[in-house]
Design brief:
The complex is a heterodimer. Chain A is an alpha+beta fold. Chain A is built from three helices and seven strands. Chain A has a domain of 72 residues: Ribosomal Protein L30, Chain: A. A three-stranded antiparallel sheet of chain B has the order 1-2-3. In chain B, a hairpin with a 3-residue loop joins strand 1 and strand 2. In chain B, helix 4 packs across helix 5 and helix 5 runs antiparallel to helix 7. Chain B is globular. The chains are: A alpha+beta, B mainly alpha. The interface between A and B is medium-sized, with 25 and 36 residues.
Chain lengths: 123, 163
Amino acid sequence: MSREPRRGVGCRAQSKETEGTSHILDETGSVTTAEPTTETRTEEDLDLPWQVVVHNDPVNLMSYVTMVFQRVFGYPREKAERHMLEVHHKGHSVLWAGMREPAELYVQQLHGYLLLATLEKVS
Amino acid sequence: MEICRHNDHIEISELDPFLAELLRQIPASASSDGVPAAEQRLFSSPANRKETELCAEWKVYVEPELRRLFQSATETVAADLEQLNGNEKSLANRTLRIPAKHADAWLSALNQARLVIAAKNNFTESELGDHFRSPIGSRRDLSLFQINFYGFLQEFILRDLDG
């Protein structure tokens, strides 16, 4: 499902330094190791993790919810069923966590299938 | 009523006038117009209400797209249901063929209808779980029967998609 362009949202006050060793695969197929780098990101660059939560709904069929989880997240049936049962028994299930933009797209897709889904900040 | 799958379509045959009429009501039943509870259910909030900016943008940018998506599905179903049009006598023992490529549209329209009917009637979870309620003695019973009948069709389409 596509979405009309809209202005970016979600800039939050946060600053973070990242350090790490990166491995680069060049055109000849050999791997080179780069020196650890220190990078300071601006607050706009960083995003807190968000989670996609699906809430229980007595109308949607269990088999339908399982199919939607398989389609939207590409989960195998067993995993999709596990999440579906968690929604059914516990009232909700966290289906995915990560950056805000893909999380929004997942929620949009889930709403397209008429599931009760929300985007929540990871606390 | 008999329902069976073929290579490229699902066939519902020997439809009696009552079930044929319930099928014909799918597009109208899927409409949430003028029913705030149904509207709220079809276009639920994407986040906690405290996320005011996100919710406001969702209303402007995402909701119209969802509306188009839902409407497109009900239009496809309405077009398929034209097979049932005709005089009342001809409704007896009619056959409806649902093309396999329309399966997703049918799943969506049936789901919309079930959700809207449930919201309109404010059914409880235990009422919705009572699949053997009979006989139909009130408008509310009929609505519950409609939800269960549409759910049965959804199950069959889902099994068909599953191969």
